[in-house]
Queue: 2 jobs
Job 1
Amino acid sequence: MDDLRAGLNEVDCDLLVIGGGTAGPMAAYRARKKNPDAKVILLEKANVKRSGAISMGMDGLNNAVIPGHSTPEQYTKEITIANDGIVDQAAVYKYAQNCYSIIEELDQFGIRFQKDENGEYDVKKVHHMGTYVLPMPNGDTVKKALYRQLRRARVLISNRFMATRLLTGKSGRAAGAIAVNTRTGEFLVIRAKAVIMCMGAAGRLGLPTSGYLFGTYENPTNSGEGYSMAYHAGAKLANLECFQINPLIKDYNGPACAYVAGPFGGYTANSKNERFIECDYWSGQMMQEFYNELQSGKGPVFLKLNHLHKDTADHIEQILHTVERPSRGRFHEQRGTKYSEQMIEMHISEIGFCSGHSASGVYVDEFARTTVPGLYAAGDMASVPHNYMLGAFTNGAIAGEHAIEFAEDVDFDVFDDAAISLEQERVLAPTKRDDGIPPNQIEYKIRRLVNDYLQPPKVTAKYELCQTRLAEVRHDMETQMMARDAHELMRSMEVASILDCADMAAFASLYRTESRWGLYHWRSDYPGSNDADWKCHVLLSQENGVMTCEKKDVAPYIIPIAEDEKDAYYKQRITAQA
Amino acid sequence: MPIANTPTTVPVVVDEDKCIADKGCTVCVDVCPLDVLRISDLTGKAYMKYDECWYCMPCEADCPTNAVTVNIPYLLR
């Protein structure tokens, strides 16, 4: 295994879905359900059984819009305000209208959602305004349940193939993708009538403070290929300057999850045991207060549960330690920390792109369509803000159904065969060198530069320095990166995506000359927000091989936001302590 | 430039007495999202070849003989 072999296979399908994590399986499944005659291929870099952000499962839904608890209108309003007004509401509204039927479908798959003594969904309030959080008692079975459905629907699964570039047809449509086997280096060319990208966050952008390259908040296999491939295919990417930064357990990269603890009475506190934010729901505005407290004399910041009854604290601990990131229990055991006894030190994560939590993603409309015809995106890499796991499922389903309909009406778009040999040459270049720099060192250098220069607060002069240094690293990558086997080849392709994402993060951030989304886009030399010039999307794309940005108007709101509501998420700080 | 091998302690530990990779089992290698486990040519048992772990634990959870233990990497402990 891992020895490099030469090889090139070609395969045709109606629909190619890239990424077998959360959105991808749902997209492929729904496409097959809608058109049982269609040939649907699900391509996965790892193994669909255990791939993606929910590899081990998920302890709850963060954004469930359930009749009787909340309405699609309320949810759309909340997310519009949480995301500082920069929201095309159609996609959020459509998600909110559809997600309940997805919950029912997941329920039929065998995934249970918590119900109260009356048999009603036991939805909890965590957000600033509405009630959307629903625990999943057997959340560790999600991937297994999905896999069963994929097998039943006879989706064709190709594991251990990493897509490296999309193919674009002569009429400008998505025409398929080129992939490389992560165990052999052999190529697979997939011709498709439509393509859905569900390739996750760009989670290996910043460097975790532990110094461990793979100790990231996101599953590190989500290294931003989706963002990079969409960019190279000419798609537009939205609001990349709206970084993802999350509150974490200090040193351990699991979410601190005041989410889970909040409904039981847990909260975020400073070192004086004081609560300092009203609402623990993750937003840039909340993260700004978190950051301010960390930097103040009242830092560090803690997850506080030790004021609760021991049974309650133990119950929360049990949820947090067994489902989404079960190694967390082991971490605390080693440290000798018990939630019922002491406050748990928290910290903030490295930066990344992830619309699942913030809003940085490949631009999509309410049908999950990107700006390239026949190319769709869903999940953490698509621009629907704050959409989390249920958003990945729901938008994956929307993408699958729309894309398979699209594929019924078109034939394969013809592409230039030269694209394949060019891509083979690019991918294999690191394997042709006997001497050079291993991918992990190039990766470390890029990510160290990201931390040194791109983490908020964003300073123009530091950003410009970073761009110069990243260009030097790009030169090293293109001329000296060396891969000795297929595994290192996979890593070197990931490094290329990480570098593309770092470049895009810098470029998009410099373009938006204001501050917005709290900490996510805090520019010290433009400290205020400027609605007159910047209450718009920033779309980044490639034009004639050069990175460019443009403004795009926010679509007229479907659900109006009152003047006295629009800043609700900026009123996070508890001002008076009793 | 010459390449050095820098020693590192790895988080995933396999109990070779329990591991049945020599009988054809590849479960832990298959389920790892980072693809860092391999079967040793020397011992026929599974081991962590690449220090690129997210300590997510499918390898441990899915192992049919409970041979795999995932520790927290030293840098985080």
Job 2
Amino acid sequence: MEKTWLLPPALIVTGFVGILPIFALLNYSLQTPFELENKFVGLDNFSKLFKDYRFTDAVIRTIIFAATSLAIQIPLGLGLAYLLRGASKLNAFISSLLILPPLFPPVTIGMMWLLLTRSNGPFGLIFNSILTSLTGEAYNIYGNAVHSFATIILMDVWHWTGLTYLIFLAALSSMDETYLLSARTEGATRWQIFKYAEFPQILYPLLFIILIRLIDSLKIFDEVFILTGGGPGLSTEFVTQYIRTMSIEQWIFGYSSAMSLVYLFIIIIFCWLLIIGLTKGRGILE
Amino acid sequence: MTFIAKTLKIILLSFVVFMFFIPLYFTFAVSLSSKARINEGVIIPDFYLGNWLEIFGGFGYWRNGIINSLIVSTAAMGVSLLVSLPAAFVFTRYRFLADKHLFFWLLTNRMAPPVVFSIPYLMIWRGLNLWDTHYGLVLAYMVFLIPLTIWILAGFLSSIPKEIDEAAYIDGYSTFTLFRKITLPLLKPAIGVAMFFAWLFSWTEMFFASVLTSSVAKTLPAQLLTALGKVGWGIEYGPAAAAGFVSVIPGLILLYWIRKYLLRGFVIGRL
């Protein structure tokens, strides 16, 4: 029963939109296209890349951002799913509040936080009064790199915790309770129940949401572009923003293609390590 | 539950509710405020309805965006599911050469940032006359939708026992009737989840939309970017906030429609 001919539609479409641009990028990255003099430069664009501090800094910054933001929103989503498990009016209200942010376009989220954190917006007022009483510094995302970076992490947590919550809630409510009962009768502690009876059952949803969130955090662009535009200085410039500046704004296309390819490779390596780590080497497709 | 745990729970939940409610309320207030009110800081709106009227009437700018978004997202969701269903079936039911590598390659397409692919697309799409058309945008969205839907569907499919298939084959079903009569009904929850995710990511996508369209097929997120003064005209916070709220509605309807599938069957497979 060889039914593998059912695969080609998906493979042809994904191949067209996924492989063709890679070859185009490879082609561009070896030249200086759309510039005054289009010449073949070999691997020059790639070697320039590793000496470009703006690029390496942006990569490190993006990874720090993704790691911090995930380290907050994944446990928060899981914790909230545990707290709001039962069916009550209050839980339904909090759930719907949490689920709304992911449904907004990221551009709108950026605008919301732009207005919220202005000096006369509600968060601007609150954060400013807390910060001035604690450290004596005024809250200013356009002047202070730390404030700006922290605000972007908070914005991302606000934006996506609802989705992690939703998936954990679904995973918890479809869990097989018999394991829990037997663990409880055996006298297991709460932590042991979680570790041996519950965690294996939510491992797949966990892998799913961590991967989706990791990928999207490394791809973050829209919100940051609206909120800070990479500033102050370069303190919130993520890789996507730098690539956009080099390609769409400055039209240095050979270099930005090389950058794109290297960054894509970095993302793939990270995700691969994560899949291998979480599934103990088995991969997603058993 | 002890008293301390209960108090901690109440404090944590009220903090979460506070943090999540403020931005939503505030943005809604912005959508109901005039320009002057937005600039002096809105806590209580002045109930200026101009923003909402502009969304639904005006010069038809926002209305076109909403219609384009609806066309593109519905088509993208439909096409990606249509293509992914048989592929996910094959991935979980048959073993073939390099199947795991092929599956991982599919996933790598979900990992590509739009900024990486947008310029090659711009060049290719212009050559194929796909630039600024609905078809072109739908095709571009396939790069992150197909891997995602295949992943969700394959995860769920692998949790459906193969014995069911074998029993059906013994009863004389062909693969097609097996898929239509047995697998598809069992797969409903996963299809619901896949539809939701496909909708979510195509409806809110901005980068491809802003590069690959200019007027005919421009979607709502791309128009929001223009309205926020990043590309083109001046800054219009009020209408943008109202448009943001309008853009949540289809997702909410979809979520409400699939809610029982989400909660009953979000196994997304086993390991």
